[in-house]
Amino acid sequence: MARTKFVAGNWKMNTNKAAAVALAKGVADGAPKSGVEVGICPPFVYLDAVSAAIAGSPVLLGAQDVYFEKDGAFTGEVSLAMLKDLGVKFVLTGHSERRHVIKEPAELVAKKAQAIYDAGLTVVHCVGEKLEERDAGTTFAVCQKQIEELATSLTDAKRVVIAYEPVWAIGTGRTASDEQAQEVHAFIRDFMGKRWNKDFADAVRIQYGGSMKPDNAKGLLGQKDVDGGLIGGAALKADSFLAIAKAGL
Ligand SMILES: O=C[C@H](O)COP(=O)(O)O
What we know:
Elements: E1 5-10, H1 17-30, E2 36-41, H2 47-53, E3 60-63, H3 80-85, E4 88-93, H4 96-101, H5 106-118, E5 122-127, H6 131-135, H7 139-147, E6 160-164, H8 178-195, H9 198-203, E7 205-208, H10 214-221, E8 228-231, H11 238-247
Parallel strand pairs: 1-2, 1-8, 2-3, 3-4, 4-5, 5-6, 6-7
The structure holds glyceraldehyde-3-phosphate.
Subunit structure: Homodimer.
Pfam family, one: TIM
Organism: Humisphaera borealis
C-alpha cells in the first residue's frame, strides 16, 4: 500500500503574529505541490492570519487542540465549528505536552478524537512512552493503550493519522534511532490491523515525532512504516521544515 507521507509542523506556544505570518508564507512558497502532504499547526490566535497567508498553497492548516462540545458555556475553549470556519483540516490529540504537562486525561483525549473525526476533519493522534516506560520495557503496552483511545468506528483511514512521539525524544535533541522508530511503528500498524483490520492499518499514516531535523529526516522517513513526521523545534524555520518535508519525497 503506497501511503503519501505527511509532514506537519507543530509550532506549540511559539511565534508572534508577524512571525507566524512570515513563517507560514515561507512554508507556503516552498512547499512541494505533490508527493508529500505538508501541514502547519500555529497557535489558535494566529490561525486566521495563517489561513490567509497560506491560501492557494498546498499547505494544510492544523490546530494543536480543540474542545469536543459543539458550543456553549466552556470558557476558554475552542470548538470544531470555529476551527472549520478558519479552514482547519486536521487537529492534534493526545500530544505528550497535553497528556503530561497539562494533565489531560485519556477520557478527554478520546472524546476530542471522536469529535474531530465526526466533524469530518483528520485526527492526528499522538502516542508515545516516557523514558521510564521505555526502560521498564512497556513501550508497546503504553502505545497500545493510547491507540485504544480511538474508537473502531473511526474507519476512514485517510482521516486517521498516528504520531509516534517517544516523550524522551521531544525537544531534547535525542532522536529515536531509525530502528527504534521502525520497531514501534511496525508494532502500531500490526496492533491496528488486529483492532480494525489489515486494509485499514495498511492505509493509516504513522508519523514519527521527536527531535526530527533535516539531518536525520531521510533515515527516519526511509523506514518502511514511517509515513511522515510531526515536527516541533525544526518547524519554526521555513528552511529546516521544508528540508524535512522534502526528505519525504
Ligand atoms: O509535536 C511535535 C513534537 O513534540 C516534536 O517536537 P520536537 O521536534 O521539538 O522534538
